[in-house]
Amino acid sequence: MKIVFTSCMDAERVADQEIWRRIAEHEQPDVLMLLGDHIYMDWGLGPGARDWRSLIAREPVQGLRAYAIDMHRRYALQWGMQAFRDMVCGFAGRSDPARLLLTWDDHDYAWNNSLGVDGTGDAYRHGVPERVKAVSRRLWAQFEHQLREAAVDAAYPAGLPPDWDSPLPAGVGDLFWSGALGAEDGPTCLLLDTRWHRQARAPGASLLGVEQARALRDAAGEPGAGLLLVAAGTPMAHHYLLSQQGWHAEGGHSYAEYDGTLRAARRPVLFLGGDVHANVWSGRLPASDGASSRVVQVLSSGAAIGRYGPQRFAPSYGVATVPETWRTGGVVEVQLWAQSRGGAWEPDPPMPPLPFDAGDWTEPLQAQAHSRVDAAADDHPVAVLAARTRSGAFRDRTQVSLPQGLDGLDAVYLDEPLQDGHYAEPVHWCVAADGSARLEGEADMGRPGDWPEATYRLVQSAFDRALAQPEKTAVVLFIHGFGKSPAMGLEQAYGLRAVYPACEPVLYGWEAGRGGGVLAALSGVPRARQGAQGGSFALATVLHAFNTVAAQPAYAGLAKVVLARSAGCLALHHALERMGVGGHRLANLNRIVLSAPMLKASEYRRQAGLGGLELPVVMTRNRHDQTLRFADWFDGAGALLGVDEDFVPARQGHSCLDFSDSAGVGPQHDYLLLRINPQQHRLHEALLCQRDFAWSDAVAEGLVSAAGAGVFDVP
User: Fold this and answer.
1) N or C terminus of the chain: which is more exposed, having fewer CB within 10 Å?
2) Using one digit for the tens of pLDDT, what is the confidence trace for 193-234?
3) In contact, 643 and 625? CB cutoff 8 Å
4) Nearest in space to 277 (alpha carbons), one of 248, 304, 250, 245
């Protein structure tokens, strides 16, 4: 019997999930296990990052509806992945819960590190209220039904289930399943739900609840019964860098089921898990007192995660082949596969054979191994102009070391807008291969008077870095949107470099709120306006430096582009008004791109700002953009440019690129940093990375069709 297992996929980050084609074509499993995190409601620093716990607490009705709508949207995006759909629908056993095993983990159950209870302290921060659990359970049931029953060409259900916000009926709860795996004579298997009952860590705390814990203890404790398979989203043991999500906690309180299972086992137990965004061979798991056990663990995760800032997570999956003689003994063969940067699939890490008899594994199996191919980082510096205020502990420090990398950056800056008249701080963000990082100031941070000259040097360093790499064709000044913390803004700059490798980003980071998502637009709009106005002097200085460096003959072969995302267009607008642009400034740039602009159409047309620019300006529009529509409704004073159906070019050379009906875009606000369809990616690549761009060429290539004066539709 061949079992394929993996976990962790994010259709927003990875729109072409090649791993499913690999599994369908090369493995053809008898059993398929998808072990959680099919969507990411809040993980990381990219388009999915948001604090649902706080939003729902502040806005109980609107917040819960927004949570349900966003969860439905994400499930629909995953179903929309053609390779995923083809694999699932082509799997002969998909309707059989003994052959297609599905469970969730924290990010599709609720939010990061989520518990099955609510309460105070840690139980509040990670707790999930019953009404939220009910919504998650109903949306999960909708997704599971689609995977098991829908035709390969079927659309995902258009809306929420009719009873999406109703209490669950009696008997509906966790996702626990047990039975003979694959067939009537298959090995015994338990599929555990490690979220629904999880308590906050404390002596004697449980993560399985009474019934699952009893079933696991009884099955593992059956003497000489042969191989037992156990699968779950959360590992039994793993060395986590930032939190303890496994059953076992190093230096903390382990869940009762960890030692309870290891001590109860009287037969060989193979535990298959996910969550860790890598392949891991853990060998025999030791009890808390160091004693060896009969439980061995193999993890495979990161099916389609992409990256986290500079860190790449290799697409990974595992294959376990179980002999028909599972009752009496034999050998379990395990292969762990990961895809290298070059696209090749490699055994990573190599696995030993796992021999067993009816009562135990017959080899020590003590060695451990971890994926190697996911360890490589983007180790090129990123030039950052930080229009933010340092927190007290870091004020005036020219160099700041951050061992935790991006996760430590937000503490360096205060959550408040820059005061008018202050310069942006010129710094290099540098990352080591082990993920640690540091900020290196281009000037003495205690001498702001030196920052204007240092800004020129910082921008020039990005141009020099682009010249030194043959694949680079452009330098892009990137102004991020609303709701981006310092780390989130930097993560998007890395994303820009990863999705469009020919461009070298220069990040302008500014304070416009630190919460993402639809509901966060309520506070994001006024915060963005405040930050844009306060930072107008800083951004005007940066634009002047970028334009001046761009004029140097040495950089004539590079494209020079300003890219403003979402509310970043508002920041750009105020900076241009501050500069007094009259059509003759920024003449050394090739174009300005306004991506999903959170900017009033009336503001765009002002001659003192964008409307006065004679260089090409391209704005992108998605009339279904859920975030902008919500912000537009909240603001209530004229249409936002990114959803405006009546676009009129302010000048010749200004144009609108309409993604409203482009395949796969749907209600998304971010259709820049994702590979959604070939036309979407190719157009953005051309706009950002090419010196010369002609709409006639784009029409001839079939990338767009002319739809009116200055308006082009993307298929």
Assistant:
1) C
2) 999 999 999 999 999 999 999 999 999 999 999 999 999 999
3) yes
4) 304
